[in-house]
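Please go through this chain and its backbone structure tokens and walk me through the local backbone shapes. Keep your notes short.
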Amino acid sequence: MSLKQKNTDYYPMKLSTADRRLLDALQTDATRSQVELAELAGMSRTSCWRRVRDFEEAGLIERQVAILDANRAGFQIQVLLAVAMTEHSDENRHDFERHVQSLPQVTECFSVSGERDYILQVLVRDMAAYNNFLNAQILKHPAVRSASSTFVLRRVKFTTRLPMSP
């Protein structure tokens, strides 16, 4: 089985202590040089480069991006939006999930258990933009029965970093 096939089946990768140190260093700053990463992980430069390629091919490293400050970029309103579906058919679910994928205001979407079916994280510039988004993009969707908004007052913690220690 190839690494690509393992990724689609979601097999967890077996990671050594050096692998975990390498991944932790990459999560902290992916712009570090191969030499610096190798030193932090306790590997040779060649082994380090090879492991990073392995992680990318296996899908463990999905992509490398710049993380922007939403407030400085002008997004003043952050909302956790709980959505309930009209019915729980596969067609409704797939249609709604495709719709959410197309909405740039939605930065995360979770299918959840409980009274609601989805929790969306939504970022918009102001309350008028949120009102328009909610009414035009969410409540008008035929799969949506109802939605409930929780407005974020302040972010207490934010990280994209996975806890890589053993």
The chain has two domains: 3-58, 77-151. The first helix runs from residue 3 to 9.
